[in-house]
Amino acid sequence: MNTPLKDRLLRHMEDGHYEPQSKSELARALNVDSRQKLDFRALVDQLEEEGRLVRLQKGRYALKRERQHLVHGMIRILRSGKILFLPKKGDPAAAALGWDLDAIPELELKPNHLGTALDGDRVAVRVERKAQARGRRNVRRHRFSSPDTGMKARVEEVTERARSRWLGVFRAGKGKLGRVMGDGVGSPEYIELVEKPAMEVLPGQLVSVEPVSRGEEKKSPRGKIVEVLGYPDDPHVDMESVIRKYDLPVEFPASVLRELESLPQDPSSGELARREDWTDRTVITIDPASAKDFDDAISIKATPEGWTLAVHIADVSHFVKSGGALDEEALRRGNSTYLPDRVLPMLPPRLSDDLCSLRPDVVRLTKVCEMKFDKKGKMLHARFADAFIRSKARLTYQEAFTMIKGHDKGKVPSMVREAWKLASILRRNRYAKGALDLDFPEVRAVMDKDGRVTDIITEEYDESHQLIEECMLAANEAVALTLKNKNRPTIYRVHEEPDSAKLFEFGQLCKLYGHSVHDISQRQYLNELMKSIKGSPDEQLLKLALLKSLMRARYDTEPLGHYGLATSNYCHFTSPIRRYADLVVHRSLNPLLANPPKGAKGAGSVGRLEEDAEHISETERTSASAEKDANRMKLFEWLEGQCYADHPEVHEALVTETRHFGVLLEIPRLQIKGLIKPDKLPGGRWVYEAFANRWKSDHGSVLCAGLRVPVIPVKVDREQQWADFAIASQEKWQQPKRQQPKKTAVTGRKEGRKEKHAPGRQRRTR
């Protein structure tokens, strides 16, 4: 039976601009008389029981039919505090809203619209068009701001939690139980304890908490301590915390180990008979000195036309069968994760370090991509086959570099130099097509047996790295082109074109650093800009800024091309030991081999591959975040030790901004930010001149944006990952040659960065 109050309520909720409201908010909106409030609350409860209304988070109500308009996706919380919603590809609710997911791949959420969701959680989000502001048709925006999407979003339901436990530091409170302080990203900032821990826990120790309630109805999240990791600066505790923070898998299930035991140590004679025999040819591997899993090898010979390059890749698909326990676990992990003191492999060590690893002087099964190139580096032909090899040499990058630069005789050194001849041509051709040069030196922690950092070293991306990189890129492109032309379902590596607003912001930053900028939305002008940056003092800083402007590389079942590599055909084929995508590509390629395995069917349906592509894109992002966090932890651990060293290492820092509380700076080599406080400024009296955005001393010295100064660390907050510095000396100060940049949204940007994937940044992330 309808009543006037019921009709008013339903009409109010059916309005196109209605946002879910609580009972009290609904009563106020409808001007319900105080004498009718009890009846009104009963009416809302009755409509909920009838299924007309649905109660959402924080006691808000909506018409049940509106739930079909919820968009599903994932929450990402950046270090800067920015909250992003990443919609699921192809969500019909997004399409119904007219939301172009290619043009707007993410939405920013307000903190009060997040509900109880945390970083990585899968959610259902209500997305609505923003109401037009009356009387303000032409709203002037800051020239650096991104275009308004015209949409707003609110989390209505958490459909899947990214983490089963929270991580935080135990603090003794006024009560008997105390509390746990989380990071506010993967764990709530404040967690109330509901019971006394079964184990001893001391204030300041890192603990794992099992949630009891997650903060619904505006109450604090509550939980119970189930594990004590130790003090944050105890040996290996930092890495254990990263593993738990990102819920990274460590142990392999019993079903996987049982399946592993059934694998023979050596391939059968029948298996070898059907494969091509490459054991009499010179095949070598080139890897980091610390590598244990060798999944790619090369062989090359000069021909009258140019070169024949063979890229051999470990045939993981021979051992890991689709649908088995090994396969399911590899898919769940998605990829290997590389922490400073350990590797969390995608495959058990018996496979990754033994049966599939292309170790020297041992017969190993491979998939070979044999490519013929002319003398200009154009690929003339590519063929694929199952093979077996016996690697003749396991070279480190340093050894290969020496051979490239040297004149040693012998098959291996000669082949390395021949490979570099081809690779250098391929590299030159790639950049001529418009590929972006985003290679960075890798900063790596050196640790003792207890996991404590003893040094930080920089590994340059030299010709030996480039040699292997070009060979692998060529094979990946050849496989992708073949699979696309044969219309075989597979997973491609895609990198879409960047957002024009973000590119514009990057261009403005380059102008502030004195570089000439044209329309960099056109690739030729972007490449010209990057050439002008190369070799400049600001090269690494600006490369990082460009990296932030680009879309995130991901996996997809459509060959959408790779912007960074300037190619329309690209997939991951060369690292199946540590990436599930490569294993899928191997299965897709099986029916097209010169000698296909018996019963080769391919990789499966497009629908299944779409799900797998989305999943492994996410596991890759999780691993990348974990690796970045772990490396930064070790970096700040080392910086803290430098504060007490007799002769701390001096770093070249770039002043990015000056404020009344000190001088903000970046150290490009370490990719960190810091602060010089006024009391750490050298010699004499310093005064902050706000009108000029600079600090000036009574001796005439000036500190302003753009200046390069030598600094040493004096105080480090490892928990907040921030460092205070002091100027080491004034002798090496480099005055900026450009006009002092004004304070802008660019120079004043916050620390948090959205990590992107750049081709070639490290060999294991290509």
Structural class: alpha+beta
Q: Whole-Å distance between the termini?
A: 65 Å
Cross-sheet strand order for the largest sheet: 5-4-3-6-7
What is the CA-based Rg, rounded?
A: 29 Å
Shape: globular
Give the rounded overall mean pLDDT. 87
Q: Sheet with the most strands? A: 5 strands, antiparallel
Whole-number total of structural domains:
4
Total helical segments? 18
Low-pLDDT stretches are 133-148, 736-766
SSE order and pairing:
Elements: H1 4-14, H2 23-29, H3 37-49, E1 53-55, E2 61-63, E3 70-77, E4 83-87, H4 92-96, E5 107-109, E6 122-129, E7 151-160, E8 166-171, E9 179-181, E10 190-193, E11 206-213, E12 222-230, H5 237-245, H6 254-261, H7 269-274, E13 276-277, E14 284-287, E15 296-302, E16 306-314, H8 316-319, H9 325-333, E17 337-339, E18 342-344, H10 349-355, E19 363-374, E20 379-390, E21 393-396, H11 397-405, H12 411-432, E22 442-447, E23 453-459, H13 463-485, E24 492-494, H14 500-512, H15 523-533, H16 539-549, E25 554-556, H17 580-589, H18 606-642, E26 651-659, E27 662-667, E28 672-676, E29 686-689, E30 694-697, E31 702-704, E32 708-717, E33 722-727
Parallel strand pairs: 10-12, 13-20, 14-21, 28-33
Antiparallel strand pairs: 1-2, 3-4, 3-6, 4-5, 6-7, 8-9, 8-11, 9-10, 11-12, 15-16, 16-19, 17-18, 19-20, 22-23, 24-25, 26-27, 26-32, 27-28, 29-30, 30-31, 32-33
Helix pairs in contact: 5-18, 11-12, 12-13, 14-16
Q: Can you describe this structure?
A:
Helices cover 28% and strands 25% of the residues. The protein has a five-stranded antiparallel beta sheet. Strands 8-9-10-12-11 form a five-stranded mixed β-barrel. The protein is α+β, with helices and mostly antiparallel strands and 766 residues long. Strand 29 and strand 30 (694-697) form a beta hairpin. 35% of the residues are buried. It has 18 helices and 33 strands. The protein has four domains: 4-64, Orthogonal Bundle (Arc Repressor Mutant, subunit A), CATH 1.10.10.10; 166-231, Beta Barrel (OB fold (Dihydrolipoamide Acetyltransferase, E2P)); 254-496 and 551-636, no CATH class; 646-727, OB fold (Dihydrolipoamide Acetyltransferase, E2P) (Beta Barrel), CATH 2.40.50. The radius of gyration is 29 Å and the shape is globular.
